[in-house]
Amino acid sequence: MFWRDYWNERMAPEILSGKTILMSAHGNSSRAILKHLDGISDEDIINITHPTGVPILLELDENLHAVGPHQFLGNQEAIQAAIKKVEDQGKVKCDDK
């Protein structure tokens, strides 16, 4: 996987050297990285909603695993609305008539 190679060869060494990094990724790539850093199962990753264009702050331990809750950066009310919008995309409306 390309992202894992890039993580292991470029990003992880920068973090381990004490640097703070900024990563920008497409939705599926960011979910894969969150899955890796949080140790999220294949079954549970489908329940993770990360709205497009909303930065997320992750703090990592010495083993580069995410610690504590993720922090979405920005207007929290707008972020919750964006999360709901993404979650609602998967819902189907049925007409019982």
From TrEMBL:
Tree of life domain: Eukaryota
Signal peptide boundaries: none
InterPro entries membership: His_PPase_superfam, Phosphogly_mut1
GO terms, biological process: glycolytic process
GO molecular function terms listed in the Swiss-Prot or TrEMBL record: intramolecular phosphotransferase activity
Name listed for the protein in its UniProt record: Uncharacterized protein
Native species: Balaenoptera physalus
